Amino acid sequence: MAWDFETDPEFQEKLDWMEEFVREKVEPLGMLGIHPYDVKNPKRNKLVRPLQQEVKDKGLWACHLGPELGGQGYGQVKLGLMNEILGGATFAPIVFGCQAPDTGNAEIIAHYGTPEQKERYLEPLLENEIVSAFSMTEPQGGSDPTNFVTKAELDGNHWKINGEKWFSTNGKWADFLIVMAVTDPDAERHKRMSMFIVPVDTPGVEIIRNVGVYGQQDGSESYVRYTDVRVPADHLLGEQGGAFAISQTRLGGGRVHHAMRTVGNCKRLLDAMSRRAVSRKTRTGVIADYQSVQMQIADSYIELEQFKLFVLKTAWMIDKYQDYRKVRKDIAAIKALMPKVYHDIASRCIHIHGSLGVSNEMPFVGGLIGSMVMGIADGPTEVHKVTVAKQHLRKYRDVEDPMFPEYSLIHRREAAKAMYDPLGELSNAMEPAE
């Protein structure tokens, strides 16, 4: 029987190196006022490229990809443990070649792209020479693809795209966008859309504005308008009508990575509130001596450990089954749980720090907003809870219990008598006391 909570020593050495490397060299980059995705900035590249090379020399670059694409082909458990370390440093994912949305975009081009698409877009993307954006969400439709209205029509040997997309992350720096558009309006709901690779300098691509999440000084969530945007027919990604299936391939593993990065963020919040609790003096001692503070510390630790184990179990299931459909319920469950755990721990950290906690001299309010973002990105929490419930109830669809079901105490007692006391010799002993 295999039941182990230890990491093999060889991989643990890699994790130990990562933790020190991220803490000592990568975290400080986030304090310098440059953006990790601004690949055209020479100052950024002068700082980031040497660190990326160190990662490559350690064999830890783009580990989510297979060896044929320069990665290690790690499974989700290993990737999850790595992302826990990367979660607390803004530059860490890009230094390790596993930044969203580029990772997901690279994955679907690797799976569904033509050789020409891979050469032109995938190879420079994997080397972080360029960055990309995933242009899916729409202003009127949110993240529900069945409500999208952006359309693509075949016009000779080109596709003509018209519509608007909202929150296309990093569109302001992207060299190309992966756009989901309706190509078959009369097909069944999940086969109406297709995906296209659209170079950002194509005539008709207009970034209306770059929106910032509250508290950000420099927004990078692009509101994009497509007006008669013409791309060659060979820029279709995968099969026509296959966008929904492609997007599910893209999102499954990414949700595990988001969750483990959230674990990393929450660990840092718990560490900060613990340090504050034992150092903040009062008239009679420190605030860690107060039971109310102890309850907040305990709740945070318990919730974090439960969540981490749930995420790693889900990662293990993905590695075991190699089929995201078999793990759909658990992937949805960790996505639904993630914003609540993040929110609760961030809010306690803010509270324990008092006025300093709500100030712009601490990063904690950013964590609180981040938790709300996690409750919206890749589908709102409510949608994932519905998925969990539907998946869970499938095995109960054939149940037809009577008014008093077989698990009622009356039926169970009669069944026990029939099995162990057919002659009624124990009947008096089995009667409940008055």
From TrEMBL:
Keywords: FAD, Flavoprotein, Oxidoreductase. Residues 13-129 form the Acyl-CoA dehydrogenase/oxidase N-terminal domain. The keyword Flavoprotein applies. Residues 244-391 form the Acyl-CoA dehydrogenase/oxidase C-terminal domain. Its cofactor is FAD. GO terms for biological process: fatty acid beta-oxidation using acyl-CoA dehydrogenase. It comes from the Bacteria. Pfam families: Acyl-CoA_dh_1, Acyl-CoA_dh_M, Acyl-CoA_dh_N. The keyword Zinc-finger does not apply. GO terms for molecular function: flavin adenine dinucleotide binding; short-chain fatty acyl-CoA dehydrogenase activity. Homodimer. Belongs to the acyl-CoA dehydrogenase family. This is Butyryl-CoA dehydrogenase. It comes from Altererythrobacter epoxidivorans.
